[in-house]
Amino acid sequence: MALPYPVSLRERIYAIVLGPLIIVAIMGLAFYFYPILEPTGPSVPLGDIFVAALYTMFRLTVAYCCAVVAAVPLAILVTHKAAFEKVLLPVFDILQSVPTLALFPVIIMLFVRFGNLNGAAIFILSLSMVWNIVFTLVGGLKLIPRDIVDAARVFGLRGWSYLQRLVLPAIVPQLVTGSILAVAQGWNITIVAEVLHTYIPGGTSAQDLFGVGSILVSAAANAQQGTFLGAVFAMVVIIGVFNFFVWQKLLHFAQRFRFD
Amino acid sequence: MPVIEFRNIAKLYPGETRPALKDVSFSIAQGEFVCIIGPSGCGKTTVLKLIAGLEEPTAGEIKKPQKVAMSFQLGALFPWLTVFENAALGLRQKGASESEVGRVVERNLRAMNMHAYQSKYPSDLSGGQRQRVGIARALAVDPEVLLLDEPFSALDPKTTAELHDDIIAIWRATKKTIVMVSHVIEEAVSLADRVILMQSGTVDSVFPIELSYPRRESENFHRDVMRIRREFFR
Question: Which residue out of A86, A154, A171, A252 would a mutagenesis test of the B interface target, given it has the greatest number of B Cβ atoms within 10 Å?
Fold first, then answer.
């Protein structure tokens, strides 16, 4: 059976090398023909940029975990009864269509009050991820075949055992695909989520969070082409490595949980 | 003393206008092998679901035992569990000790000729092998009544014939009550000792089959098949 993603080592190497190469080539051409930033050297060393990228990864990981913890029960609740689905699904649909960043100023002010700026970034990242996961999980729960549900009931699976032995394993493939989409969305939002001062009245760049997102924004604002390219490079490498070692393996693992 | 008794059962699914079952009455004795046949949509699977407790009747009374297990059309195995784990599902759910699970599951997998596949996953198995695991899973909980929902519908003739022999062997060895749903008259006549023909949500006729096994070689096999066929297409 042909799998819809790279599995052989050669294919994986293509994925990890070709992807970043294409991105770097496009950016290189863009900078060459349209030098929007001055060609200055990196004012932030590449090593520091990678450390910043790890800080960003940490925020994304915490946000992702929070999003999963929220999304799984929400998806199960929606599909538990037709009546719940009728009420909750349109509500979720409206909530997911509200741009996450529109809520950012309010959320920042709340977290600033408690002096927790990292919390603000993680909250907004989590909010940007949660709906991707919820909707893919809802789709997955609806894919559980009727006879499998009947078999579970005939053999006495109820309550927690029903969740543990049927529902949670059955949503593994959708959890993986939803997570890939969610984390990609998180990387998009991180560019804004770490630059907090623009949302705080009278804020300064000292209130920004150390991370690859804030480095990108600051490099663009200060015309530091080297830093900008270094940050993009670090981001691409980390995303590529993560894809290679985590998502590809999880996608492969999730095949076992698919119904025929 | 019947082990299963339907008294004037009606079933209307929510959102439907046409009842799936109307005024269905029959009884099944302990140790009987009954096959329910009929065209698609006549309500035969609904009868099984009512016996299994997966559905409740809209009207009427059902007498059925507590210990009922069911084997499904395509096996209905959990893809993430091995053959052994699938076959052990019901038994583990009942809280059996691991030593008992090991002993019972191994015995039933051996009975269904699936012992060599116990560490395989359902995706590694053929349709017939999945069906065998589904039956082993049902037998593992030692049910009073074994329900078989069109167990051979997706199988090739050779596998079907082999499974027929296995089912008869299990039935004779365990003396369990078996209720099977099928739409193949020859299958019903070659296995069951009573055939219930359903049409449009109700029991149309009941045919006792008094042939010795193996039946397909029997002279009277085709006579019984034709007798049911006439009623089926009436």
Answer: A154
